Amino acid sequence: MHDEKPLDRLFAGARRVLTQCVFMVYGVIVVFPMVWLGYTAFKSTSELFASAWALPVEWKLDNFVEAWTEAQIGDFFWNSIFVTISTLVLQLFLGAMASYALAKYRFRGQNLVYYGFLAGLMFPIFLGLVPLFFLVKTLGLLDTHLGIILVYAAFGIPFTVFVLTAFFRTIPTTIMEAGIMDGCGHFTLFLRIMLPLAKPGLTTVGIFTFISIWNEYILALVLLSSSHLRTLPLGIAVLQFVQFYEVDFGALFAGLVIVMLPTLVCYIVLQEQITKGITVGAVKG
Amino acid sequence: MSLQNNGRVALLFVLPAFLFYVTFLVVPYALAFGVSFVKWRGVTLNMEYTGLGNFAKMIGDPFFWKSLYNTVFFTVLTGIIVPCMALYFAVAVTRKLVAGARLFRITFFFPNLISQVAIAVLWWFALNPEFGILSNFLRLFGFTDLPSWLGEPGWARAAIVAVKVWAAVGFYMVLYVSAIEGIPEDYYDACKIDGAGEWQSFRHVTLPLLSEMMKVTGVFLLLNGFGTFDVVRIMTDGGPDRATETLATYIYENAFELGKFGYATTIAMTLFLITFSLAMLSLWIQRRDSVEY
Fold first, then answer.
1. What is the CA A230 to chain-centroid distance, rounded?
2. How many percent of chain A have pLDDT more than 70?
3. Residues of B in contact with A108 (CB under 8 A)
4. ipTM for the complex?
């Protein structure tokens, strides 16, 4: 090992301290706004204007109650739950079926279909937005939950196919043959044997779909207009627009907490899986 | 293997997803190409073919140029700041240059889990000149004459960039971390034996071997920058005086607020062509310069 000069060691030490400081400062910049939001949601608007930093004098749930009932956040929450879950089920099921066939069968036009799906990952949403709006309108699905669920599921299919095709390829074909030997039909084989084996892949896609649909804004903005159908991000965006003039922020703060919590909790519980999944998604190149 | 050659069964499996995909993605995108050549206002399907008329109108539209300029401004700045910060953080946590690396890895990713809407509203609050975090923080140091951050063109733009960076760094950090963790430890050991410091091993091992990941993230950053919508729409709605208007917000305004559907799609088509050619160009340049190992 080589000798280190004292000056070098001093320099390395200083760099270490500096790096640690940078991390801590950025950590505060990331976490503090959320923490501030979290406790401010318990304060009244007048309390907020009086002392912006202070913890609430009394931890009152008034804002949450008001948000949930009067500001319709409760409705938006259930709408988001319904839309997210329906999208998840539809997208995963259709996507898994297609991926299974693409990975395990051979048919004419197979590559064309596969790369056709993948091309969907490349197109920016804004290009198709206007025609999509009129398409959904023509189908009579504008301003319905069904319409937005179908669109969400269709937009999620490329990513689903990309991840799950790779996943199904790793499952040995001998398992399929054994299933057929036992007298399974093709569909039973898929449903009873292959789908359960693909659970890790389904989980990865599921987590990502959950996070992205739960947070989605632009499609909801274009495809939903009735206030009772709004999802959480759309509802909060509208609420912000209204509060801008009314200066009553309590409900909005509480609404923000309600939209943020589910994905944050999901992450804290499934942290390893999400981190791994991101890498899978990025390597598509 | 007759089992896997059963094309009819395979088609039955693929068909539902494929029909969905074609209906809601392929058809709209294909239509977009046609719609950009028509004048189309209002709610009916009455369109009037104008050839390149929409494009000519766009060239003469100062707001288009302003939103293009702003979009490029946001893309370039986030495209430089985000990877630099993310790379710095990724190297520090993987090379164990910082204590509590695991905790930082988790917390820095938080903003990526939150809806862009929530991020925008959160920062809209945090930048409020009266009760916001930033103003109150600066008041602690005796600053009194503070601007309305989102009300002045220069500050508003800076704020959009800052919020976009805040929202994105964690995601890119995770990507770089996973790429760095894929580099064999031997390379770093070899560096150490040669007496190289942390900087040299970064310069000669980490950076060249990250070229694949840089390529991927470069395209992501490009798409993300040119698609800037949510944060702008909520924090400033393109203002003040269109200082933060982006192509995406301008497209939305034209289509869904002014009912100029044809014109909006023309701008969308331009946006797509710009991003697509830039993405191809950057992939090509990086392929040409990429390192084999």
1. 17
2. 94
3. 7
4. 0.84
Helix (H, G, I), strand (E, B) or coil at A73: helix
Same domain for A77 and A46, yes or no, is no
pLDDT digit string (tens) for B195-246?
777 788 888 888 888 887 888 888 889 888 998 899 999 998 887 888 899 9
Cβ contact (<8 Å) for A130 and B261?
A: yes
Which of 82-111 (A) contact B at CB < 8 A?
Answer: 94-95, 97-98, 100-102, 104-108, 110
Asked whether residue A50 is domain-assigned, the answer is yes
Using the CB atoms, write b or e for B17-34: b if 16+ within 10 Å: bbebbeebbbebbebbee
| Integer Cα distance of B73 and B79 in angstroms | 10
Q: Are residues A102 and A233 in the same domain?
A: yes
Diameter of chain B measured on Cα atoms = 80
d(CA A123, CA A128): 8
At B130 the three-state DSSP class reads coil
Contact A279 B13 (CB under 8 A): no
CB contact under 8 A, A282 and B7: no
CB-based contact A205:A160 (threshold 8 Å): yes
CATH superfamily ID and name for B60-289: MetI-like (1.10.3720.10)
pLDDT for residue B123: 92
Decide if A53 and B136 are in contact by the 8 Å CB cutoff. yes
User: What's the domain count of chain A?
Assistant: 2
Strands of chain B (E only): list them.
38-39, 48-49
Element (H, E) at B39: strand B38-39
Closest CA to A189 of A100, A106, A94: A100
The answer on A250 and A156 residing in a single domain is: yes
Domain that holds residue A162: 63-282
